[in-house]
Amino acid sequence: MSSVLDPSALAESPLSDLHLLANELGVDGYRRLRKADLIDAIVAKQAGEDYVAPESGARVKPADDGDDDAAATETDGDDEDAPAPARRSRRGGRARGRDEDEGDDAKPEPRSGRARDADEGDDAKPEPRSRGGRGRARDEDDGDEAKPDPRPRGGRGRARDADDDARPEPRSRGGRGGRGGGEKADRPDAEDKQVEGTIELLGNGSAFVRLAEGETSDEDVYVSAAQVKRCELVSGDKVAGPMRPPRRSERFPSLVRVDTINGKPADEVSEGTRFEDLPVSFPAERLALGSEDPTVKAIEWLTPFGRGSRVTIVGPARAGKTEALRRIAGALAEQGGVELSVVLAGVRPEEVPEWQGGATAPAAAVSFAASSDAQGQAVEQAVEQARRVAARGSDAVVIVDSLEYVPPAVARRALAAARNIADGGSLTVIATAPAALGGETTVIALDASLTAMARFPALDLLASGTMRAELLVGEAGAEAIAKARAETLA
């Protein structure tokens, strides 16, 4: 199974992200790897292979005599299978290799400053390691001197992290001779267990594979946020792949990689056309609200919006923007037919329970006391999930209250994500803001004076408008909207 990871994309990622991904995949000793070796290990792990990082970048090729036991492999400072060296005082400074008169020309001389002789048996004394080595055969917290761990020749060991005692022994990358293999042969490899289920996204970007659709259990499998984003998973996707058991600090097993999505290879699904490159068109299908609220009813008929619209509800403070948005969200939830998500950014704390008591509970709720970066992250995360829904051919609507305190660049990106994909799905963004940001297809302006006097609908028709309204309501409807504006001026 080929990996869905792109090494060039990984090379551009910060080391902290690579460490997080390596931890999720169960890469041993990833914190001791250089970035290039870490990328190789991640790609190999995703592909179902195993990787052992070289020490100081040295790699030794197999011998030419065909002897598997004599085949040299990459030198590894974290060698647990081979006898751990005892420290010896030597005036000569650096460790020397084995004597030349041993006559074993088929075995290459390691470059790491020490040599191992697989044929010397238990009587051979290991040479001390070079002082620059990063790995140790014993754990950092173990004060006792490491004891040799005799295992079949031809195998290569590694030091295991303190939390990775239960991990299966990986196979030799070279494919010849294998690695010690004793422990792996004694118990089944947990990563070989395949799971299949339905994705359920969480508010923080991660997800669970629900083995029984619609029900939760302790056997459900955790999916990291990195895998969700990389494979562009959405709620309801059917995925399959290998899992690993939970570690000491974990409650649930974790998905090692995603092999298939809705019956198709993960590579094929994730390597589709970029969302930004999909062909788009102006909204042509109106979103019906069907509300009897005077303001919402006026919005539906005088400032219509459709699937793929970019909508802002604007007006000064206390103009009723949040109330109008909440009623629009309730109307859309009752109509159905769209994947609706609500994100609160910069709202009053008292408004959070009002939204939670509505038809659609907020996916994220950040009050105005939070930093603008935290508010921006909440908005971007909701929009990112909706983009995946639209890219799969479904219709998504993101309700944002509000964009007032969100960084301007983030607000523009969130609004620009809305689009009607030609012959595909759509993403509609409806947000409140003090003023229009630019680029909207529909602007709904509310009049604070009408709201203060409880005169509804509180719609400022002259400041409101919809681009290409005829595509949504027809030519006759567009003429009726123009007539209503003219009567307002009169």
Mean model confidence by pLDDT:
76
- The CATH homologous superfamily of the largest domain: P-loop containing nucleotide triphosphate hydrolases
**Major beta sheet summary:** 9 strands, mixed
Helical content (DSSP H or I, runs of 4+): 25-40%
CATH topology tier name of the largest domain:
Rossmann fold
Could you tell me the radius of gyration in angstroms?
A: 31 Å
Strand content bin:
5-15%
| Tally of domains | 3
Low-confidence stretches: 56-191
What class, by secondary structure content?
alpha/beta
Can you give a write-up of this model?
With 490 residues, the chain is an alpha/beta fold. The chain folds into 3 domains: 52-187, no CATH class; 190-270, OB fold (Dihydrolipoamide Acetyltransferase, E2P); 280-489, Rossmann fold, CATH 3.40.50. 26% of the residues lie in helices and 15% in strands. The strands form 2 sheets. Strands 8, 9, 10, 11, 12, 13, 14, 15 and 16 form a 9-stranded mixed beta sheet that branches. Helix 2 (15-25) runs parallel beside helix 3 (35-46) and helix 10 packs parallel to helix 11 (408-416). The protein is elongated. The model is unreliable at 56-191 (pLDDT under 50).
